[in-house]
Amino acid sequence: MSHASMQYRPLGHCGTKVSVLGLGGWITYGDHVTNPELIRTILTEAFEAGINFFDMADVYAKGEAERCMGSILRDFPRQTLVLSSKVFFPMSDDVNDRGLSRKHIMESIDQSLRRIGTEYLDIYFCHRYDEDTPLEETVRAMNDLIHQGKILYWGTSDWTGDQIRDAHEICDEINAAHPQVEQPRYNLLARKKFEQDVQPALIENGMGAVNFSPLAYGVLTGKYDNGIPAGSRLEHEAWLRKRYFQEEILGIVRQMKAIADRLHCTRSQLALAWIMAQESIASVITGATQLQQLRENLGAKDLQLDDTTLDELDTLFSPDRE
User: Fold this and answer.
1) Which of 60, 124, 186, 217 is flagged as catalytic?
2) Most CB within 10 Å of its CB: which of 2, 39, 56, 238?
3) Is 60 known to be catalytic?
């Protein structure tokens, strides 16, 4: 893969740029993929292909994703990487080892930095909104981490538009660093929340988006056209089977194949290219359990969709779903 062909986009209104395709560790490294050499091979090829954005979270495999990815990423020049992790979900049974309290944020960042093996994170996400913690407390904690040099930017993940607006309002009131990036769930099968609620708030406040689940947990690849393959995510995750293993959804994905065939690409590449064409998207966070999956995903960066194709996909996949 050619490093020169990778596109880089700013995280909204800021100077830092991320590769249009990122690589994340959810339900993969340290969890379903534990072979150190395979993980090293995938991350190394991703880096050599021009991917500079690597996304993690403390809760992914209870810290193992950070450890596995960090042990490899620390071998690359730090200035060439944009590393992110997240805080919110419980890491133990302790009452304070969760949420977005100042205590949990301050303790969690140090643990994540140790596991990854870096002195700072480029982006630190609030993994969900915390109804139990005053938003100003969270904002002040994130602002302090920036002043301490432990993070460069802070972001939100799967927040609503109003929650994002509230955060910016508090930042204005107390002169704190604003959240710079949102990490939403966004794909052809999940459009409504992002496009109708979240995206307008991002545009208003100069934020970028780096979305997760771009292939709807593999459903948009077509791998479930004729059933659930052994070892697939839908086989392992009952909640995913309930949400996506429905004939209505699978039928739409099968129809998508004709468009991909016309463009001489795979459905995975078509789904990724569609997201890249959407406003506010800085990077699409992909996952890869095999080297071939990474290589297929990388092929999407060179796929340009014309207005006719975009209209076809808009017709096929309802903007009012999820």
Assistant:
1) 60
2) 56
3) yes
